[in-house]
Hints:
Helix 1 (about 55-65) links the parallel strand 1 (about 40-45) and strand 2 (about 70-75). The protein has helices at about 55-65, 80-95, 110-115, 130, 135-145, 155-165, 175-185, 190-195, 200-205, 210-225; strands at about 40-45, 70-75, 100, 120-125, 150, 170. Helix content is about 45%, strand content about 10%. It has a 6-stranded parallel β-sheet with strand order 3-2-1-4-5-6, sandwiched between helices. By secondary structure, it is α/β, with parallel strands linked by helices.
Amino acid sequence: EDVAREGIPPTKMTPVPMGIRADQVGRAEDARAPDTKAPTLLYLGIILRLRQTEMLVRVLEKVRQRYPGARLLYVGEGQMPSDRQAVMDEASRLGLTDAVTVTGFLPMEQAWEHVRRADICFSPFYPIPVLLSTSPTKLIEYMALAKCIVANEHPEQCQVMADSGVGRCIAWDEQAFADEVCRLLDDPEQARTMAARGPEWVVRNRTYDVIADSVENQYSTLLERKA
C-alpha cells in the first residue's frame, strides 16, 4: 500500500512476508506461564537508536515498580557502538545497570535458546515510515517458540496478533508497554494460553514452505495470464 501510493499499480506487486523454517517451529506445549518473581523480559534483534530500543530500559523501570525482580535482556548488538551505549547509558541513569544485559551478536540457535528461557518477549517498532512497512521476523520467531509477546501498533503486527490470538497491539508508549507486561504477569495462566496459540498459526501461515507455495502460485497465475 505504501508503494502503491507512490503510483505503482497494486496488480503489479506481491507482498511476501517473513517467516521461519517448518522444522524450527515449536509446539503449543512449549508455552509456559511467565515467572512473576524474577521475570526475564527479552528483546531479540539489532539495537538501533533510530528504533529507540533504549526505550525498553525505561519500560523495565516502570515494570519493576510492581515486579522488582524483573530483568531486561537484549539479545543482539548495536549497528554502531553508540547504539549499544545508548542502552547502557539509560540503564546507568536509571540505576538499572545490574538488571540490563546485552549479549552481543549470537548464532541464531544460541539466540533462540535465550528466547526459549525468557518470560516475555518485546517486538517494538518505532512508528516511522521506514519501519511501518516492514514484516517483523522477531514476532514470527517468538510465536513459533510459543512465547508471551508485547508488541506495539504496526500494520503487520496488529494483523498477525489479532488473527492468531496471541496478544494485542498497544500504543508506542512506555507506560503502555509496562502496563501490558504487568497485565501478562498479573495473569500468568492466561498469558500461557495466548502464547500457546503461536506455533499452530505459524505452521498454517508463516513457514517458508507456506510462503514458497504462495509465491509459486502467484507466478503460476501470472504465467497463465501471459500464455
